[in-house]
Write a structure and sequence with these properties.
Layout (H helix, E strand, L loop, with lengths): L6 H8 L15 E2 L11 H16 L3 H21 L7 E4 L2 H9 L8 E6 L4 H10 L5 E6 L7 H11 L4 E5 L12 H6 L6 E5 L18 E6 L11 E4 L44 H15 L4 H22 L9 E2 L10 E5 L3 H13 L2 E2 L1 E3 L2 E5 L16
Parallel strand pairs: 1-11, 3-4, 3-5, 5-6, 6-7
Antiparallel strand pairs: 2-8, 7-8, 9-10, 10-13, 12-13
Helix pairs in contact: 2-8, 3-8
Length: about 400
């Protein structure tokens, strides 16, 4: 059904010699690391070429073209998919870490800073917190994600009973694929003084997301590398309306509208440029716009993508239950509610890191590409998996 948009990548992947470790494989690869890196739709090739031509022809004028036409087009598309009322309040950067760190830099470094988060946040944010914890004025509280059924209650209780300047939580946890229960309702009730950040990387363009009721209460950050399939190098963060925070970490893009006006004061725009950084490669911007246009032209919505993946996941579960695999089974599956509380990959808790590594290597001999996080093996699902795929060979 959707495979027609990925012919270039599926054709390339079919030649197993192109993938390290699969030389001599007897069947084409089944890419189940799509939660880590999505195949790019074919239209992205022409988009990269267009970026090259625009840069070559416009030279320095490319910034005017990008900032006046390309960026607003992407902002409008992102706002449409996430139900955000202010497209101009969506900041762009090469990665989410840059955006989050710029947000962290809005707090006075000489004053105490209390941060509330979970114990299942992605490596870059967790590493940054560990480094910040070395400072005497930084205090971090991590709420255990398990048991998931009480996570929202425990997180909200901490949020309202301690004076946190920043709260940070994932929409879908990278190490389990479980969606944070009732996260948006929790964000709606957050204390006024708390800056609330939702890490949407495993939710954006995977799970239908409506931020309309919390757009002016939270920062939502995600990127184009995973489920949109546009590649690395382009991430975004939505900014609440009338935000007056002043990042200490700031770059020349934040002043691009007034470059010729000399000022002794560091001023900030009342739009996304408040959190802008510096020079970056915008080729992924072109790719993202091409993918979004492709999906729009063919009426491919996030709701349809999610439904397609849910059906694939259900086929996998049916096959798994029949296979009775010693490791890939219900007992080891970190699993919440598939319909309302899960992302687009499954996570299996193996007995040890060595066992997970051996299982990953064994699957690779079957031309099945997946990944792991320590002793947790992750298997992902995408719209470029055929409708007739039963995942039987995963359990051989």
């Amino acid at each position: 059904m959707y495979q027609q948009y990925y012919r270039q990548f599926l054709h390339t992947a079919a030649s197993s010699a192109n993938i390290t470790g699969l030389e001599g494989a007897t069947c084409p690869p089944l890419h189940m690391a799509c939660h880590s890196h999505h195949y790019w739709p074919d239209v992205t090739l022409a988009a990269v070429q267009q970026y090259w031509h625009d840069a070559a022809q416009l030279v320095d004028s490319k910034w005017e073209h990008i900032f006046q036409h390309k960026i607003p087009a992407l902002q409008r598309a992102l706002a449409q998919h996430l139900k955000l009322p202010e497209p101009d309040n969506i900041a762009l950067a090469p990665n989410t870490h840059e955006l989050v760190y710029r947000l962290l830099s809005t707090f006075d470094p000489s004053q105490p800073l209390r941060i509330l988060t979970t114990d299942s946040e992605f490596y870059s944010f967790e590493r940054q917190l560990q480094r910040l914890e070395e400072l005497p004025n930084i205090n971090i509280t991590r709420i255990a994600t398990t048991p998931f059924d009480t996570l929202a209650e425990r997180f909200e209780e901490a949020l309202h009973h301690n004076h946190y300047q920043l709260a940070y939580a994932s929409q879908v946890f990278f190490d389990s694929a479980v969606a944070f229960p009732q996260l948006q309702a929790l964000a709606e009730r957050k204390p006024q003084h708390t800056v609330f950040v939702i890490d949407g990387y495993h939710g954006f363009f995977a799970r239908p997301t409506d931020l309309s009721t919390i757009a002016d209460r939270v920062f939502y950050t995600a990127g184009c590398y995973k489920y949109l399939g546009a590649g690395e190098g382009l991430c975004f963060m939505s900014i609440p309306k009338n935000c007056q925070l002043r990042p200490l970490n700031t770059g020349w893009f934040a002043q691009i509208a007034e470059l010729e006006q000399r000022s002794d004061q560091v001023a900030f725009s009342n739009n996304w440029l408040r959190f802008a950084g510096a020079t970056m490669d915008y080729s992924t911007l072109y790719k993202a716009l091409a993918v979004l246009q492709l999906f729009n032209d063919n009426e491919i919505t996030v709701e349809k993508i999610h439904a397609y993946v849910l059906a694939a996941q259900q086929r996998f579960l049916t096959t798994m239950d029949k296979a009775k695999h010693p490791l890939l089974c219900r007992k080891n599956l970190i699993f919440h509610d598939l319909e309302s509380g899960h992302g687009h990959f499954f996570t299996f808790q193996c007995p040890s890191e060595k066992a997970a590594q051996q299982l990953q290597q064994k699957l690779r001999t079957q031309s099945i590409l997946c990944d792991r996080r320590q002793q947790r093996l992750r298997l992902g699902f995408a719209i470029y998996h055929p409708e007739h795929e039963t995942y039987q060979r995963v359990f051989i």
